[in-house]
Amino acid sequence: MSYPGYPPTGYPPFPGYPPTGQESSFPPPGQYPYPSGFPPMGGGAYPPAPSSGYPGAGGYPAPGGYPAPGGYPGAPQPGGAPSYPGGQGFGAPPGGAGFPGYPQPPTQSYGGGPAQVPLPGGFPGGAMPSQYPGGQSPYPSQPAPMTQGTHGTIRPAANFDAMRDAEVLRKAMKGFGTDEQAIIDVVASRSNDQRQKIKAAFKTMYGKDLIKDLKSELSGNMEELILALFMPSTYYDAWSLRNAMKGAGTQERVLIEILCTRTNQEIREIVRCYQSEFGRDLEKDIRSDTSGHFERLLVSMCQGNRDENQNVNHQLAQEDAQRLYQAGEGRLGTDESCFNMILATRSFPQLKATMEAYSRMANRDLLNSVSREFSGNVESGLKTILQCALNRPAFFAERLYYSMKGAGTDDSTLVRIVVTRSEIDLVQIKQMFSQMYQKTLGTMIASDTSGDYRKLLLAIVGQ
After folding, report:
1. pTM of the entire structure?
2. What Å distances lie between residue 60 and 73, 97, 112, 148, 242, CA to CA?
């Protein structure tokens, strides 16, 4: 996989990535383009979430250009949204918090703030370092077409009426057969928070549990997708982690995908939810299910303590690049704890600057070095962190592609990414997908799935 200009030109082999023997897990070179220059994101960090726990997503800025009444993600009225399957307090976790100040392509404003106008040159502050080997700037400096506001494909429905929706769902499930299209029309065009309110209204009106009713009417992938959409987003992440570690064997890729890509606040909420809903300690479960350097990396991740300051310290980036080189390529063997320390604590913009400093200094891309120095799950985890620092939508686009490529479909991954990113950055993920694989996400989903499951996925993706 080649992030353009990353590694820079000027040394063979270009781009030196994917590592030999791992071609199957990465797209061919030349397919990880940057949409554009990276402007600094406006505004400071998000205000801290209220300490009282859920519900209450107060304090999130309204997205630019979207007149959703009640702000976004609309906080439920206290007591208005039920707990998911028992255990009070998981009404609707804030869904769209982004990394505060993560410098992004203009088409990629995570938290729903208005997209910023990029500075010339595509680097925060507008300056383009000139010391790239090969002498060319690594990112296209033309800004991509601007898209305003939030970048999920699902937005809160205007004129939302929870009772009316509950009635539609009840009718769709009554009598013989199920009117799946009616269910799809409601579910795919409501935000997660609105779905929690529909769930509450359904129980109030009919004295029945909507989820149990849906479960008895649906099966297979369609059931998994609908249930995922009705779980509060934090609960869904916690549930996915629990599922990945339950029973024999562990789905390490799920642990990596969730723990290495979420914001501090999201991770802390997941840890709290995991404890309150499953009565278990997430860190303890990780320790008993994983081992070695991979275990340490995940334990670091579930602290939710990454630096989230958006300012880049170029001096520190230089020093970190030097440290990483000396811990890996510059010695016999690998000092794993040094990689863990830097990749677990530095902010994403800071890591991006470190990767740039590293490729200037070592004439090799840091992702490539990680492949040479590590293997297995810890390699995947470290690379996920670096890929998110470079371009998070591209990371998810790649995961979606490989969930459908080849024989069979990894439906759980497909469902999980489409649902969890649908209100955050699925628009950017679709853009990156088309750039990287020369086909749209919708086309690939349509050819890989069928029936109502396909209809609902396409309705969420917005085809």
Report:
1. 0.70
2. 7, 8, 9, 17, 28
